[in-house]
Design brief:
Blueprint lengths: L23 H11 L3 H10 L9 E6 L2 E7 L4 E6 L8 H14 L3 E6 H6 L1 H13 L17
Parallel strand pairs: 3-4
Antiparallel strand pairs: 1-2, 2-3
Amino acid sequence: MILPGTGRGTGEAGGGGAPRILRPEVSIARRLRRDMTLPEVQLWQQLRGSPQGVSFRRQHPIGPYVVDFFCPKASLVIEIDGISRDMANRPARDALRDAFLADNGYRVLRIAAARILADPTGTAEAIVSRAARPLHQPAAGPPPRVGED
């Protein structure tokens, strides 16, 4: 039996309270997930399902930005650059975005959309390889100084 006011079967949520308000970046990320470009779709088909145990997120909000793909394990941001990246003020905006991400501990990997379209499997394998074995491993400490090998 469904009790009046429980919201079951009516599409309404029960419990009352204020409606949930999302950060603008979250709403944008959700829209971008629905409207992915062909290179993004092809790359996501290869990266989803945690290949080699490395998980990825698509259209992930970080600060005021939404990045194309994100690997939390490696703090790696993957940005797909199409032809529009070279137009108008995009290079300057991308430089600010990359600086913000670097200042907050993220590595940014930019990949041309044409490369993904030409070889989505090979591109994904290269990304997974980089994410699985980052160049710097913070747990190992800083690299030895010259002459301390």
